[in-house]
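User: Please predict the structure of the protein below. I'd like the answer in structure-token form so I can feed it into my own downstream comparison script.

Assistant: Understood. Taking the following sequence of 233 residues as input:
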Amino acid sequence: MTTILMALILFSEIMSESNIKDKVGIISIYSQRKQIDYIEKHNISLFLFGQKKFLDLFQVRLDLPSGIAKGKLILSDLMVNFTINPSEILMKPCFSLGFEFPTGTSPATSGRFTISPKLSLMQELTENISLNFLILGNFSPDKSEKRYNTLFPHTFNEILGFIGIRTGLKSISLQPAIGLIYENFKYLGFQFQAEVITSVSDNFEISVVSFLNIGERTIRKGYGAGLSLNYSF
């Protein structure tokens, strides 16, 4: 899940982690970044992911990100995410710890190891309405010269907080959300987005999301859209 959070928040993916399951999928993101000159203006990313559950309590997820940078299809940094869902208790807490490894090809790599803890919560208001909360951090012990991943722009010491509301039927629902991002513990940004989630069947789900990020000297500043296809079994 960590890879998606570098560019946007797919709440359908985040909150589905509260239901530990085996799943595979593909995600594509188009974005245009406006301010920082080391980020290409237009980015198209595409990556595969797979996750495996253990004892209906733990989950391991692997993301294989790639995308188009400087007109070429290149690999980005590998992501591994470990999730635990303790039980069906109040607000359904879900704890995750992600690791980013600098395995990508420049300019689609940060060139450093990053640790990403995450906590998500869900409060059901009615049968068809729920509030979703997320807090995430990205931290790196590497203090070397700054480099940024052009496909999934993020900084290495930052905190993200999001709140979203999901409403609709089981087959189709809408989820608007707003987020606050504190990059490098210096620059504050805001992200607004809306996601439409369609359940084609009990196992197959399609999500479409659009987002707008604003802020001064933030590397995520810009807008874009994403498409997610996933199959659980």
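That's the full token string. The longest strand covers residues 42-54.
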